[in-house]
């Protein structure tokens, strides 16, 4: 049963085109982090590394309280200078992106950019390496969310890019689920690129953030799956007040292969609800990774998801959850759980 409300659109019918200029202009924190600050970050007292990370990042952003001096003849102890980059290493759901956005908002920078790793590599693909360097050179701050090195090409491009920007005075802040020296492990022949990976990691001070996934604290840890009747009602209600998408899961996955991941955000422009019919388990790695990138954009936009078929926390085959992309898939599952609960 498929409702006929005028507010229903099909993601599979969208083929967005994004120019390099538009991509550069979009390098700002996602809407859900528009108001992110260090004060609004709620450190879990059970994990002291969260508060410690926040204090270090306040210092990195240059907005901390001035160092108290001693008496007239006493010198305050000198703190070791921070590296040009900070690298937030921790599991998913511990607030790394919130802290990254807090740096972006707090740092008094004339030019600053915030984007996911895939957005920066897409920018290079759209504009060319030299043009990208020329555009970003002189920026005071570059924030990179979800830093991943999934293939040798990305490794070479990003290490060269970041090296040139650091040399010109740009500060870097990045998040990932993988320490910088371990990037690429289990995904490609990382040993062939150790020199580049280590050279890049030398620019960062790694800050570990421990904790539990905050997205799972208020839900039961499983994705909501709807029957056809509930799905139709939910879709119709959302479409009567705004815009909702309706696509079969298999059609959606096929369509993602025709659109560059940097343009996925345009696939969901204006949507208030994303609906997927007949979800199935993904066994193809390329399909799964494209779906992860799509979920990341839906989560950034905080759009609820309604789905039928296989529960979305079971969308990735078991063997995938044991491979090199395990952390990516687990992060996506965490986000899918939260988004499906938001649709109820």
From TrEMBL:
The keyword ATP-binding applies. It comes from the Bacteria. Keywords: ATP-binding, Cell cycle, Cell division, Nucleotide-binding. One of its GO terms (biological process) is cell division. This is Cell division protein ZapE. It comes from Microbacterium istanbulense. The gene is zapE.
């Amino acid at each position: 049963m498929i409702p006929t409300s005028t507010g229903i659109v099909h993601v599979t019918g969208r083929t967005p085109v994004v120019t390099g200029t538009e991509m550069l202009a979009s390098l700002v924190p996602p809407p859900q982090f528009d108001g992110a600050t260090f004060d609004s970050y709620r450190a879990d007292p059970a994990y002291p590394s969260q508060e410690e990370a926040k204090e270090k990042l306040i210092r990195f952003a240059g907005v901390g309280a001035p160092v108290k001096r001693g008496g007239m003849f006493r010198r305050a102890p000198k703190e070791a200078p921070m590296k040009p980059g900070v690298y937030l290493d921790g599991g998913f759901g511990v607030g790394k992106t919130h802290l990254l956005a807090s740096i972006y908002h707090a740092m008094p920078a004339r030019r600053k950019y915030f984007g996911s790793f895939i957005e920066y590599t897409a920018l290079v693909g759209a504009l060319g390496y030299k043009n990208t360097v020329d555009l970003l050179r002189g920026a005071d701050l570059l924030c990179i969310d979800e830093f991943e090195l999934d293939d040798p090409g990305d490794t070479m491009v990003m290490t060269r890019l970041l090296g040139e920007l650091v040399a010109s005075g740009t500060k870097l802040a990045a998040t990932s689920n993988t320490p910088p020296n371990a990037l690429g492990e289990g995904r490609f022949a990382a040993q062939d690129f150790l020199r580049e990976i280590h050279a890049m990691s030398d620019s960062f001070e790694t800050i570990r953030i421990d904790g539990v996934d905050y997205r799972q604290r208020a839900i039961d840890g499983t994705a909501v799956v709807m029957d056809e009747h509930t799905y139709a009602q939910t879709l119709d209600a959302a479409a009567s007040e705004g815009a909702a998408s309706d696509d079969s899961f298999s059609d959606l996955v096929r369509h993602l292969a025709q659109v560059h991941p940097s343009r996925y955000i345009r696939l969901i422009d204006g949507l208030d609800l994303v609906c997927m019919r007949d979800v199935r388990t993904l066994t193809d790695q390329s399909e799964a990774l494209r779906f992860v990138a799509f979920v990341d954009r839906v989560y950034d936009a905080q759009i609820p998801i309604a789905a039928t078929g296989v529960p979305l926390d079971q969308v990735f085959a078991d063997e995938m959850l044991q491979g090199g992309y395990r952390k990516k898939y687990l992060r996506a599952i965490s986000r899918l759980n939260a988004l499906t609960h938001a649709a109820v």
